[in-house]
Amino acid sequence: MSTVYADLHIHTVYSSDSLIQPKTLVDRLLAHNYIKVAAVTDHDSVRAVKATMALASAYPDILIIPGVEISTTAGDLLILGTEELPPKPWSPQEVADYARSINAVSIVAHPYRLYGMGDIARTIKIDAIEVLNGGSSTAANQQAKQMAKEEKLPGTAGSDAHQTSELFTVCNQIQADLNIDNILHAIKKGLITTTTQTNGN
Ligand SMILES: [Zn+2]
Fold first, then answer.
1. Cα 167 versus chain centre, distance
2. Cα 23 to middle of ligand 1, angstroms
3. What's the CA-to-centroid distance between 182 and ligand 1, angstroms?
4. What is the average pLDDT value for the chain, to the nearest integer?
5. Which pLDDT band holds residue 1 (cuts at 50, 70, 90)?
6. In a domain, 81, yes or no
7. How far apart are the CA of 60 and the centre of ligand 1, in A?
8. 179: containing domain
9. Which of 8, 22, 38, 97 has the fewest beta carbons under 10 Å from its own?
10. CATH classification of the domain holding 14
C-alpha cells in the first residue's frame, strides 16, 4: 500500500461562483510536487467531472475523483465517487443514503461555517466530516474536528478552492494506491490524515 496526497474539495467554473477551469486544475496537479489527487466537487453539478477526468487520464501519475457538493435542505454535503447527481429531494439523509448505495463517500462539508450543517450532521448516517476546510476559520475547523472525534468518524481536508490561488491550501495523506475505489475505501476506513500545507505549489 502506498500513500497519496489529495485535495478533496474543489470547485470549477461549473460552480457559478468559481473561476477554475478544468484544464487549469489538471495543469496544477501535474505541476505540484506531491499532491496528485483532486476531487471535483461543484455546487449541485457534475458537469465538469467527465471533462476533467478525461483531461487527467492522459497522465498516469495524477487522478481526478468525481464528486459533487450537494446543497441539502440542512447544509452542504460532499459526495466523492459519483458522476451523477442524487435523486431529489435532497435531504441530508437521503443524499447520504444515495452515496452509500453507489459505494461513494458522504462527507459533511465545513459543518460550522455558512451553509454548514452544524450539529444536524450528528443525526445523519454519514461516512466522514470535513475537519479542515480552506475557507473556514481555525475555530470552525477545530469544532468540526471535535465533532469527528466525538462521532468517531474520519476527518477530511479540502481547500474548497474557487480560484486557482486557493488550490491545494490543505492536504490529505491517504494510505491507498492511486486508484479511485482504493482511495474511497481508505477514506471510509479512516486511513487518512489532514494537514495544512504551504509549499510545493
Ligand atoms: Zn465548496
1. 12
2. 19
3. 23
4. 96
5. confident
6. yes
7. 27
8. 3-196
9. 97
10. 3.20.20.140
